[in-house]
Amino acid sequence: MIIYTYDGTFEGFLTCIFETYNRKNFPVDICSRTGEQKHLFAQKFDVQSDAAKADRVWKGIQNKLTERNNQLVFYAFLSEENGIEMKIYRFLRRLFSEHFSIETDFGDADVLYLTQTSQKVKKEAMRMLQFVRFQHTKEGLWFCGIEPRYDVLPLVSTHFQKRFADQKWLLYDLKRNYGFLFDKVKLEEVVISSKEFSTITGQVNENVLQEGEEFYQKLWKSYFKHINIQERKNLKLQRQHMPRRFWKYLPEMLILN
Amino acid sequence: MKNEDVQFKLSVLADAAKYDVSCASSGSSRKNATKGIGNGVACGICHSFTEDGRCVSLFKILMTNHCIYDCAYCINRRTNDRQRATLTVEEIVDLTIGFYRRNYIEGLFLSSGVIKSPDFTMERIVQVAKKLRLEENYNGYIHLKAIPGASQELIHEAGLWADRLSVNIEIPTEMHLKRLAPEKDYKGILLPMNQIKNAILISKEEQKKYRKAPRFAPAGQSTQLIIGATPETDRQIILLSSGLYKTQNLKRVYFSGYLPVNLYDQRLPAFNRPPLVRENRLYQSDWLMRFYKYKAEEILSEDQPFLDLDIDPKLGFALRNMQQFPVDINRADYEMILRVPGIGVQSAQKIVMARRHRKLNSLHLQKIGIVMKRAKYFITCNELPASTTDWAPERLKRKLIAESVSKNKKLSDTQLSFFTDYKPALPPMH
Fold it and tell me: Rounded distance, CA A213 to CA A144, Å?
């Protein structure tokens, strides 16, 4: 009976996998140091993140998976679901031991669960591409604060980098309190200490908004209202495509709230 | 931009543009090679959803709602007494860039009423796209409407700047088009359509030879048909759209349930609700042709001109062809698994991949995401009881309808009910 604990990062998790094989001592659970404590009397082994070890494991995974699914484990990990570590661990044990690729064996509960979870994460990432709304500030920065269900900002930052290459923007995760800043040259991860925006809705304080920002929001609201066909009203369909939890970040939905 | 003015124009022209249903921003992966603004995403992105549940992907706007034509089905017809407005080229460009930078939209869909002449109108549409590409360094999505009657040069230039072009057919048969829009004919519509088709083919050929060859409408062309304004049958409409996919290489044929916009016109049918269920069934048939490998003739036979509004066309096909079922999940071809009601494209692909590793049973299928409530009558997999496969089609249809209605009772918002306007007569109070 041994459990491995790690620092909650993906690198730390991969180091855990390395250690289990290295020590030939296979765990009953792998959990984050910072997460809730589940085991009181079990023997613990604390793993320090090690980039070199993690890299070896990652390469091993890449060798076994097809290109189409090569991010499967990473996406599933980003879901932060309870107990995802052991599911990935069992999947990897099977992956490493079998001769043929098992990633399409959907009859296996772990494989199916990881596939479906990584789908959910990808869907949440897609929602970021859909529902991020930038506000223009006086300093010329385009800001958006948003709260994705899973930790998906690293997956979408390159999309915005490509799309808004001539624009200085900041995409901020309000729940996990970090974000990505792009200054027209490079992308970097930042944590903001003095916030000039609402940590709930991501709205920038009015005194730092660029002139004209409110006008564009007004135009957008007006456009949104007029493009709707009243005779076809179907609120359920609207909610299905655009879940309520995003409405507070969308200027066009603020009139209705 | 004068603020008040633009806001007024925007509201009038958005109102006038909403009847065009095309919204896709997919099919183009234009790169932001100039380090300007915008890039295409091949799968398309919907940025918002209005109360009618339709997506707002592109900034869909008319350049003007003045029009020299008088088509009976159109709200912007010349004889209608409506507020009219015209946006200038600069205003459209400013609005597009302003919205795009805020990530409100995925691109621009520019259409227009016809002013002065088709050439005059088309020229200004092309100007907008050109200005966006050259002056604003914009690489996002652009969908332009090709105006029938415009010169070949202008339409060709439009294709060089835009990602997608479309020409709307609107009325599915020429006879009825002549009746509702005497100034238009099929020849005028098919001419630009053919031109665009050929230009796309040529550009694709040249792409193969040299990579830097100019792209012509990389996201293809589409069209729209109005449903319910004229008495065409569903079979006619489906055959027409499948013909268009084949001969014109269209990417999409959109269906627009007719909204009674010109109630006074005696040439149009009098009803006050758009035929939403029929429109939905037509889209489902369209999906069957595009993703489920059905032929148009299979969806509706000659003795059955209309789609069944109670059940979807895929279930309808299965019930008419019970001899092809049950399908053995562990052995049948991918094409056959696709035809089982309750199994979609993704589930079918998963089944085919998963059965290489082990035999699948109903528990596996349920977990993979198959709607067993429907599928169980049409499949066998290791251990299903045989009794479920022996149903008479009529009886099975009634059972499946009953099951789906009880669950989605609140959903059927388009259902007519008897007592919506009923007010009980109260006895007078004394």
Answer: 13
Interface mutation target, options A65, A66, A106, chain B, most CBs of B under 10 Å = A106
Q: Which of B365, B335, B363, B333 is nearest to B347 (CA)?
A: B365
Contacting B residues, span 370-409, partner chain A, CB-CB under 8 Å: none
Q: Is the domain covering B3-291 a CATH 3.20.20.70 domain?
A: yes
Domain count, chain A: 2
Tens-level pLDDT at each residue, chain B (430 residues): 567 789 999 999 999 999 888 888 888 888 888 888 998 888 999 999 999 999 999 999 999 999 999 999 999 999 999 999 999 999 999 999 999 999 999 999 999 999 999 999 999 999 999 999 999 999 999 999 999 999 999 999 999 999 999 999 999 999 999 999 999 999 999 999 999 999 999 999 999 998 888 899 999 999 999 998 898 999 999 999 999 999 999 999 999 999 888 888 888 887 777 888 999 999 999 999 999 999 998 998 888 889 988 899 999 999 999 889 889 999 999 999 999 999 999 999 999 999 999 999 989 999 999 999 899 889 988 776 555 557 888 888 988 888 876 554 544 444 444 444 444 556 655 5
Give kind and range of the element (H or E) at residue A3. strand A2-6
Size of interface A-B (CB pairs under 8 A): 158
Q: What's the N-to-C CA distance of chain B in angstroms?
A: 64
According to DSSP, the residues that pair with B142 across neighbouring strands are: B108
Q: ipTM of this predicted complex?
A: 0.91
For B349, nearest residue in chain A (alpha carbons): A104
Amino acid at B168: N
Domain ranges across chain B: 3-291, 313-409
